[in-house]
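Record type: monomer structure entry
Structure origin: computed from sequence
Chain ID: A
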Amino acid sequence: MTNDVVSQVATRCLAGYERLIEPWLAEVMTIEPYAGGLVGRDEVRAGARAGFALILRTLADGRPPAELAPHSEAMGERRAGQGMPLESLLAAARLDAKALWHGLLAHARPEDLPMLTQSAPLVWEAVELHNAGLMTGYQRAVLEMGRQREDQRRTWFARLVDNDGRNPDVVRDAGRVLGFDVAAPFVAAVADTTGPSAGVSDPAPDLGGDDLESAARGATLRAAVRTLTARGLRLHLHDSPAGEILIAQLPFRPGEAAQPVLDALAGIPCGLSPSVSGLARVPHAVRLATAAARAAASGGGPLRLEDGWLEVFTAHSPELAAELAARVLGPLYAAGAVERERLLETVRVHLDGDGAIAATAAALYCHRNTIQHRFARFRELTGRDVRVPSDAAVVALALKAAAAL
């Protein structure tokens, strides 16, 4: 890596290299945030003393000393932990080459200068080896800190859900870790929930775990996260066996506060909770969104709970839904297929309309007496009169259940 001239000049420079540090230090301490005192002057000087010695030894010995990589990487890790911006760290590191080159020139004999000048790339290479170690350590520390922050966020969100927002201390600390205003309004979205434990009346989902399927769902939700983050919303995305959970803090605005979330989720099969007031109510919102998500799994976009009550109730318990459909609509099979479909069509149109016989007759191009006769026949077969509100509710639920089977 070196030649005899560079080795000899570097060896002489090592004897008095500490004189190079003070001019270097004076320049470094003008760089922010060094200038603001993020790292103390004595600590910066000590780091330079070790770094300069190791670089000069690389040039003198023709190979990097064993301590170079650990020192460089350890310094990069430490600066990352101190919150030093990478560009500031590298700006200081670039001054190493300047200081060391001046030091080598000062210790070179006149006859050394031509060969030393030709060998300048060796000096930059030795400095870059140190800088590469700084970068490696810095990036490793940033990744580890990111993992630790994400683990901390997951842990505190799980605690918030586990105690159902009842502990004010947990709510406060979860808000601090997640970066949420605990008094703000929130919505929860849940994508692709599965399993009977995700229902609205069941306990909160056991958070944690991961698989390939949830990873694929996460990619979709991460796209929504990027969109919402660009709009300035505070978010938390969480994996759970019930699916992907997205919590969004809404602005303190009434009315259309949740609309940006709904827009970002367009095309994603997921459930969206109503807005809840305060972080303590987020576990409740998660349960509501989870219930809606099961009903939305086969759809092409988000399902708001308020837009899908019947779907949510039928999706909540597939076994009960199947039983309901069989008991309420099963007796229609006593009629022929043509009559059965005609009766079902009439009932569906009526329940989807405003409940007026005349409107149903107009929609089906029938006389109102024909509609009345069909309703009477439906009641004869099923025992349910769709003109009675309580019976109409049961029939509507049974129709949704049958459609979901």
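Annotation 1: The two ends are 74 Å apart (CA to CA).
Annotation 2: Strands lie at 185-191, 234-240, 243-249, 270-272, 276-277, 302-304.
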